Give the backbone structure.
Amino acid sequence: EGTTIALVNNKGGVGKTTTAVNLAACLADDGHRVLLVDLDAQSSASLSLGLTRANLFPGSAEAILDGVQPRDAIRASRISGLSIMPGSMSLASADIYLADVENRELVLHSALKQLRSEYDFIVLDCPPSLGLLTVNALTSADFFLVPVTPDYLGFEGLLNLMDAVDRIKAGIGKAGSFLGIVLTMADYRQNVTKEIGGAIRQKYGHLVFLTEIKVNVRLKEAPSFGKAINEYDKGCSGAKAYREFTKEALKRIDQG
Amino acid sequence: EGTTIALVNNKGGVGKTTTAVNLAACLADDGHRVLLVDLDAQSSASLSLGLTRANLFPGSAEAILDGVQPRDAIRASRISGLSIMPGSMSLASADIYLADVENRELVLHSALKQLRSEYDFIVLDCPPSLGLLTVNALTSADFFLVPVTPDYLGFEGLLNLMDAVDRIKAGIGKAGSFLGIVLTMADYRQNVTKEIGGAIRQKYGHLVFLTEIKVNVRLKEAPSFGKAINEYDKGCSGAKAYREFTKEALKRIDQG
Ligand SMILES: Nc1ncnc2c1ncn2[C@@H]1O[C@H](COP(=O)(O)OP(=O)(O)OP(=O)(O)O)[C@@H](O)[C@H]1O
Ligand SMILES: Nc1ncnc2c1ncn2[C@@H]1O[C@H](COP(=O)(O)OP(=O)(O)OP(=O)(O)O)[C@@H](O)[C@H]1O
Ligand SMILES: [Mg+2]
Ligand SMILES: [Mg+2]
C-alpha cells in the first residue's frame, strides 16, 4: 500500500521528470491508484501532465511548508487513476524555510502518511539538488530511482550522489532502498553513450536497469501537449521503453 | 576590471557549465585574465577543466562559508590566463548553512571584492536552483546570462526564472543586468527546436543572442578529457559556436 518511489539525481536535465511522469502514467494505465508529487519549483511534472500555472496552488509547498491538509493539495489529472500534488515556485526557498524546523527531514513523510492507504503507488519527482526537499523524498520513499545520462558529467554526478545518499542514510538512519539506475537519453550513434554507458554498467552491475530509455524526440514533444508518452504517441520507441521500464521496476519492487 | 558574469538557470541540464567553461576559456585564449568560480556541488566546471576530485579543497565553499582567504581557494588551470575556484559537495548545504547568516545574499560579493582587480573577467557557474548560491551570484555579477534549451520544459523554466530574478532584484535592490539568453543544444532536425526556438525569439527579441550553440557531440566528449572545446577540437562546430558567442558577449558587455 502506498509504495513510495523517489526520482533522485542532483545532476540537472537527466530525465527525472520525464521518468516520474511516465512511470506514474504507466502504473495508472495498468489500473493502479497513483499519486505523483511534484517537489520541483519548476513544476515540470505538473506542467507535463497538463496543469496550468494558474492551477498549481495549493500544492506540495503549501502541504509541506504551510500546513495545508495534504488531501486539499491534490488534483485529478486527465489520466484516470493518476492524481497530482503540484509543485510551485514557493518550493525554491524550502531549505531556508525548513532550516530551523524540528524534524525538518521528515516533514514530507508526515504529510504523506495519511495518504498512503488511498494509493497503490506514490511517485516523487525531485529537483536537481541534494537540499532538504530531496532529503525529505529519500526519507519518505520506500525505493529511490536514479536516472542518469550516459555522458561524462552525468557519470561524475552519479559518483557524487551515491556518496551523498550513504551519508544521508547514516545521518538520519532512514532512507528508501536503492531500486536502481536507469540510463536515459542514450544515443548509440555517439561513442560517449557506448563508453560511459558501459562504464556505468561495469561499476554498478545489476543495479542498472536492463531497460534503457533511448533518445526519442517524441518524449521531448509530449510535455508541450500536457500528455504522458502513452497518450501522446503510444507506438513510439519512448512509449515502449517506458512500458518496459515500468514492468522491470515492478519486478524489482517485488524482489524488494 | 573584474567584469563578473553569472550563468544562471534553475532548469537543469541546459548547458550552464558547458557555457561557463567555454566562455571562460575563450576569454583566456583572447589574452584576458579570467577566474572561473564553480558554485555547483557537482563540481562540473572544475572537473571539465581537468581538476580531480582530490584537488577540490579549499574551494568556493570554504571561501564563502568557512572564511578561507579567497586567494587560497584559487588554482591555475591548464589554460594559460584561466584560474579556477573549485566547487565541492560542501556547497550542497549552503542554503541551510547561510539561512541565519547576516547579509547572506552578499557573502560571495564580499569574497570576490578583493579579487576583482586581479582579473579582467570573473565567470560564475551556478547550480540548477534559485537558492542562496544563485542569489549570491546574481548580486555579485555585473551581468547574468541564461542558457536555455529550445524545448517545452526549457521554455517554461525560463518564464519562471525571469519572474524570480525580478523578485530577487526588487528584494535585495542589487543584481547584475541581463546580458541575454543563449539557445543551447539546438537541433534543427527536430521541429521542437524550430517551434520553441522561434517562440523564445518572438517573446524575448534582441535579448536572445544571435549566436546559437547547436548540438555537437564533441562538447559532450570534451569534459571527459578535462579540456575546453578549443583545446579538445578547435575546428568543430561547437568550438566555432563558442568563439562566436564570446565575441557577441563582449559586444553586448561593451554596449552595457
Ligand atoms: N529519452 C529522451 N529523449 C529525448 N528527450 C528527452 C528524453 N528524456 C527527457 N527528454 C527531454 O530532455 C529534457 C530534460 O528532461 P527532464 O526535464 O525530464 O530532466 P530532469 O532531470 O527532470 O531536469 P531537472 O534537473 O531540471 O529537473 C526535457 O526537455 C525532456 O523533455
Ligand atoms: N551543445 C551541446 N551539444 C551536445 N551536448 C552538450 C551541449 N552542451 C552541453 N552538452 C552536454 O549536455 C549535458 C548537460 O550540459 P551541462 O552540464 O553543461 O548543463 P548544466 O546546465 O550545467 O547542468 P546542471 O543543471 O546539472 O548544472 C552535459 O553532458 C554536456 O556535456
Ligand atoms: Mg525535473
Ligand atoms: Mg552545471
Notes: The beta strands of chain A are 3-7, 34-38, 75-76, 82-85, 121-125, 143-148, 177-183. Residues B 16-17, 40, 44 surround magnesium ion (ligand 4) (CB under 6 Å). Residues 147 and 182 of chain A are 5 Å apart (CA to CA). Residues 152-172 of chain A form the longest helix (21 residues).
